[in-house]
Amino acid sequence: MPAGEVVLKVQLPGRESEHEAEALRVWDGDGAVRLLDHDPERNALLLERARPGTRLSELELDPALDAFVALVPRLWKPAGAPFRPLAEEAAWWIDDVPERWERAGRPFERELLDAAIDALRELSATQGELVVVHQDLHAGNILRAEREPWLAIDPKPLSGEREFGLSAIVRGTELGHSRRAVLRRLDRLSSELGLDRERVRGWALGQTIAWGIGHDDRVESARWLVEAGR
Hints:
By secondary structure, this protein is of the alpha+beta class. The protein is built from 8 helices and 7 strands, in the order E-H-E-E-H-H-H-E-E-E-E-H-H-H-H.
């Protein structure tokens, strides 16, 4: 690869980015940027640069969803060690989120918090086949490239069922923030990828609240997801 066509990524150690290098190795450039080198002591990754690097969020909703449907199944590789199990992450959220909600001054209704926790508890115990899931695969983390039409970046990998892998794009604001847009993403992606719509909805609700304290737009998306299950 010519000089200047790489990206050096140095990050602080964190729970979500743990095993990012391992996910990129598993994908090996199939639908994601390639990992060229990794220095674990410095938390540094040398990555393929996606050119021109236009974000998927620059597209209109339906063309963006077309591209997502073509891309995401390629990332669902069989998963095991060293990736943290989604059930373990969900258990951590169940314990952690109520405390953060209290510390934040109860910024939204208890019923919404309870709905998210109930979904996490139920879904984590009844998962299907476990694959590598990118838990932040919204439309800002998919870039146009030359080697392939689109490549995923910035994995925050877990080992979990496929339905969880839609959470970020369903709740995300990158392709529009409205009840109609959220439910369009939920319904269309669940259907076209052959996934259980209620499980996709529940996982999206659970993760949206787990990551949403302090983010009013995410809380609003969570309310729409609750309404969509009634």
